[in-house]
Amino acid sequence: MAQTVADRRDVDFVLHEQLDVQQLSEHDTFGEFNKKTIDLIVSEARNLARKELLPYLREADEEGCTFDNGKVLVPKAFHRAYDLFRKGEWIAMCDDPRWGGQGMPATVALAANNYFNGANFPFMLHNILIHGAGKLVERFGTDKQKNLYLKNMYTGKWGGSMLLTEPDAGSDVGALTTRAVKNDDGTYSIFGNKIFISSGENDLVENIIHPVLARIEGAPAGTAGISLFLVPKFWVNDDGTMGDFNDVICTGIEEKMGIHGSPTCSMALGGKGGCRGTLLGAENKGMRAMFVMMNEARLHVGMQGFACAGASYLNALNYARERIQGPALTAPKGAPGVPIIQHPDIRRILLTMKTFSEGMRSLLFYVGFLEDLMTVSSNDADKARYQGIIDVLIPVAKGYVTDRAFDMCSLGVQVFGGYGFTKEYPQEQLLRDCKITQIYEGTNGIQAMDLLGRKLGLNNGGAFMDLVAEVEKTIAAAKKESLLTPLSDILETTLHHLKETAGKLAGDLGSDNILAAFAHAHPFLDVTGDTLMGWMLLWRAVTARQKLADKPQKKDVAFYQGQVMGARFFITTVLPVAQAKMAVIQTGDASALEMAEASFGS
Amino acid sequence: MAQTVADRRDVDFVLHEQLDVQQLSEHDTFGEFNKKTIDLIVSEARNLARKELLPYLREADEEGCTFDNGKVLVPKAFHRAYDLFRKGEWIAMCDDPRWGGQGMPATVALAANNYFNGANFPFMLHNILIHGAGKLVERFGTDKQKNLYLKNMYTGKWGGSMLLTEPDAGSDVGALTTRAVKNDDGTYSIFGNKIFISSGENDLVENIIHPVLARIEGAPAGTAGISLFLVPKFWVNDDGTMGDFNDVICTGIEEKMGIHGSPTCSMALGGKGGCRGTLLGAENKGMRAMFVMMNEARLHVGMQGFACAGASYLNALNYARERIQGPALTAPKGAPGVPIIQHPDIRRILLTMKTFSEGMRSLLFYVGFLEDLMTVSSNDADKARYQGIIDVLIPVAKGYVTDRAFDMCSLGVQVFGGYGFTKEYPQEQLLRDCKITQIYEGTNGIQAMDLLGRKLGLNNGGAFMDLVAEVEKTIAAAKKESLLTPLSDILETTLHHLKETAGKLAGDLGSDNILAAFAHAHPFLDVTGDTLMGWMLLWRAVTARQKLADKPQKKDVAFYQGQVMGARFFITTVLPVAQAKMAVIQTGDASALEMAEASFGS
């Protein structure tokens, strides 16, 4: 069998040929990350993923998590995997080495995460939660907080979570009711109930540090009155030793459709009056802190969804090459069966899965690469420009990517036919696991509103236009290649329509038509994503054509030709449809708004 | 809370206002099925579905089926439900009363099945299998076979299944290897292994009659050598009593993504040499018999998928009306939260789910209505015309409907946010259960090939054009209504493009481009389905406008206005995109075919 989890050739292509990530090593910050080092890291991640994470994907799904009187047991196999993950120092790949981080470029960490999440995304949720919580401490913590918690988190000795959601405060975080009361010693007593808390309780770690959103008594209503606190499961004494249990109780875990290896906890804080936390960052600035972390978290969710889709593609490809079923369509009667990859409809599905998942890989790695460019840049204008483009791309990298990733996982089941519906193959689990990525960290409806309502107008539309300018660079490069000119023409027209559509919606946002604009927010996310996929695939094709001119090895020829063919397939079949969707958005149909509530059904 | 399972007003609308199904009672065959009787039947089905099937949906999903040494236990709650189902005589709704059937119109049975499947589709699988097996006996059985088996099947005393698939013969049925050897007494000894057999073994019934596809020794290879046999679990003596166990052994059941209440069995026939069957129909004509039954089976799978989507819609609607989250977008800062049905993106999702599911209901009921018209018609040309339209519609009713139904179930999860991913609500189960409808009874890839390869050219394209003529009738009716003229114009243009696209593909089928045509088979299924959805919704709008002219009650006004608004939403936002997809098909992109196999990945 060929590769699983993620196609190594393609991961390397994006890192070294499309993005040329080793250029980062020219800067001191990433000086040690030359190509050899990068390849070593990615190979190690790949081995760990394939040998230690992938084999337990199904087992962990079936075993699930167990709740017993406040305790939560994760799947047994996760303990060994977690030990290896800690030993490999994979939790804080990009973070400050002073605190146990590895200081590597974000792009390289994304490549490693591609393998990890493609192999066992439910397992990876534990680690991303620890890292996210740690990052909050690193960004907003006092020296004391960092000294007490951070190294233990980044090295995986202690866990982390994120306590935001409450039963009546999901998409509307500002509605939360968890209270914080200041004590004489400067700590806060916390009272409240949280739900949907991934890794809120588990037996992988001896302590868990919970960042908690709560409202200090007397603080304003809504998001303006929300503060962030660090609430350890066991209190941490000033000398770093662990103290008493801190009255943070897991009251149950959800039964759910997928990610069974990741416990989704309900948490009660201060039920016995004994829960204390320390303020993280400034009073009433909790939402600001969450927003700062949001880009990273949402990019990571995009990675989770994409990794499922990418793994599903490779499984489907391998199956289609081996599964004999039916003779070739043009074969004479009685001809023997052939591998189903020879059937046109299966080829169409496979090429759809390939182009979408490869386009997603490029898009996600590109966002990481922009972060790295920001890190090494000494020019404030450049930094601001990179940040703007990242901000525009995040709702696409989360919302569009996970929407399409779910579609791809569904196609990945279809290729297997009846077998795809059984637990004998990983396809159905990838589909079930992938579904959560469309929901958490802000539903994709929220992502669409973010793109339209916040990001489109960022810097007076300058951020969006900076992104457009990047796309135009690729179009210009493709025009120099006669073979790619027809494709660059289609992308150029699509981009033109996208700008028009964005302009129309931006106008509506500032008018009485604001609700109609938001009724088209998700379609706008769709067409923006389609255009950016087209861009990434054309960029790949341009790169591949350049490489083909250098007369590469036979195996590479097939790879590069596949890039050109994939771009042609996507750009000539998906983008014209995206243009029609843009035209529909511009007509501004308001039926969904005008519909009387009673007309939806009695 | 409002309605669940299926919207009664909408079911009645299709039956009595769109299709005017009681006109069938003018014919002797359906003489007793006047409106009052129809409403009584549908009400009874609705009550049974909501009170006795829906409450056990989740319980049965969690309990699942149990395999123990050849025996299969279905969920406990199914026993009571099955007793009620039998007592209500719901298994053979449309069949010959001589054999225990109810002789009702297919359209009315579809309405009942809408409720049953929307409430508990895994339970319903048992019944549809019994009915399908019985129908084979009714259609192809000798008098003796009918007398021995049929009444016990139609009344649910005995079960039924369908033994087609083998490990290496799925989509390619002709590859099957199960053998039949003729005995001196005229029976056949059967030897082989089957997989993916729904209800192949279960504890609901005392005997199971298995129709089995097998190859008689010496018969030709491929589908031309396949015969159909009746193989009872326990041999049935000539006097109707049950004899010895017939060496039909269930060797295991699949663990799978959904429909956990329906056992998916592996079956070993004749492992000890003791399995006998009788020929059903003529030697080597087994595939012909299966094809005759296929329309009914595929229509029913469309119903299963649609019923999941319809139930998911009503759940989402009820939730959106009750779930408070976030203030209205245009409200001043600090405004209180509102039910999420007031948010534009949720409205867009709900209207999408409403229009697709209602269009599906109309399409499926319409197919049933055509069957009924065929039944009552005494004109052979009419009968042939109806049959042709049905034949064209079946791959759409199965393939397109279940594709979109799965999408709608996915949207139905999104409306619930994080809760949608939990087992606390039915949304995730509807999504999981629905997935199988895209796969079994011929994957949707097979449906697409059926539409393109068989149905488009049926009667030299006459069947397709007969369908087109029906669409044109609605367009003409809509043109008389100024409010609907813009919509009928869009549908007319779309229909024109569909004919062009069909013509282009039909040309390709008869040329060297045949593989390219099949690479566009699934997109062609998509656009055909979109066009037919637009038709059904315009037909609904025409009907609703007529009813509005009669000054109906306030509640009905809301319903009818919803129909007009739904048609506007769908036709102005979905059909222009479908037109673009048709243009793409016509460009005939062959990338998926030209792609070297190595280029898909190493």
Tell me about this structure.
- The structure is a homodimer of 602-residue chains.
- In chain A, a hairpin with a 5-residue loop joins strand 4 (179-182) and strand 5.
- The first copy, chain A, has 602 residues and is of the alpha+beta class.
- Among the domains of chain A are: 8-65 and 74-154, Acyl-CoA dehydrogenase/oxidase, N-terminal domain (Butyryl-Coa Dehydrogenase, subunit A, domain 1); 159-284, Butyryl-CoA Dehydrogenase, subunit A, domain 2 (Beta Barrel); 461-590, no CATH class.
- Chain A is globular, with a radius of gyration of 24 Å.
- In chain A, the strands form three sheets. Chain A has a five-stranded mixed beta barrel with strand order 4-5-12-7-6.
- Helices cover 56% and strands 10% of the residues of chain A.
- The model of chain A has no long low-confidence stretch (mean pLDDT 97).
- Chain A has helices spanning 8-18, 35-53, 57-63, 77-87, 106-140, 143-154, 286-322, 344-376, 380-415, 427-435, 444-455, 462-479, 485-509, 514-519, 521-549, 554-573, 575-587, 591-594; strands spanning 66-68, 71-73, 159-160, 179-182, 188-198, 208-216, 226-232, 234-236, 242-245, 248-253, 264-269, 276-279.
- The interface between A and B is large, with 109 and 109 residues.
